[in-house]
C-alpha cells in the first residue's frame, strides 16, 4: 500500500493495539486490520491470555518455557557413566526412538536419524540439528574455528 503523493509506504496500523503492522503486513486484511497476535486474542483465544488455548498457533504456546539460559542455570555436568541413562530418557522425552545397534546409539525422530558413540553424544546431535540449519559448517566457518582453537583440519 502506497501513499501516491509521497511515494512512501503507508504504515499499516493495528486497529486493536494501535501500533504498526510490519511482520504480517501481507495478511493485514486476512487478520482484519490487526497484528496476528491481536487478531488471535480478539477473536480466537479463550481464557487467560498467558495460557495456551486450543486454537492452532496460539501465541501463548511456550510462554511457560523460560529461556535456555534460565533452564540450564546452575547446572554443572560432566559426561560420565551417570549421564547415560538421563540422556536416553531425555531423547525419549523429545520423542526419539532410541536403540543401541552394536556399538552405536541410534535415535530416530520421524525421518531424522542420529547415530553416535553414546546416548549423550546422540542427544548432542539432536541439539546440533535443532540449533543450526544446515547443521554442517561451511569451509569458511571450518577454517575460522580450526584457527581459533588451534586445531588441525
Ligand atoms: Zn495489534
Ligand atoms: Zn490462544
Can you walk through the features of this model?
The chain is an alpha+beta fold and 153 residues long. The protein has two domains: 1-65, no CATH class; 77-148, no CATH class. The chain has five helices and five strands, in the order E-E-H-H-H-E-E-E-H-H. The strands form two sheets. It has a three-stranded antiparallel sheet. Strands 1-2 form a two-stranded antiparallel ribbon. Strand 1 (12-13) and strand 2 form a beta hairpin. Helix 3 (84-93) crosses helix 4. The longest helix has 13 residues, at 119-131. The protein is elongated and about 60 Å long. The chain starts with 11 loop residues before the first strand and ends in a 5-residue tail after the last helix. 12% of the residues are buried. One zinc ion binds next to loops.
Biggest pleated sheet: 3 strands, antiparallel
Low-confidence stretches: none
Bound molecules: zinc ion
Distance between the termini: 52 Å
State the secondary-structure class.
Answer: alpha+beta
Cα radius of gyration in angstroms: 23 Å
Write down the domain tally: 2
Q: Fraction of residues in helices?
A: 25-40%
Across the major sheet, the strand order is 3-4-5
Continuous helix count: 5
The secondary-structure element order is EEHHHEEEHH
Number of strands: 5
Average pLDDT? 90
Strand content: 5-15%
Global shape = elongated
Helices, strands, pairings?
Blueprint lengths: L11 E2 L6 E2 L14 H9 L23 H4 L12 H10 L3 E5 L2 E6 L2 E5 L2 H13 L7 H10 L5
Antiparallel strand pairs: 1-2, 3-4, 4-5
Helix pairs in contact: 3-4
One zinc ion (ZN) binds next to loops.
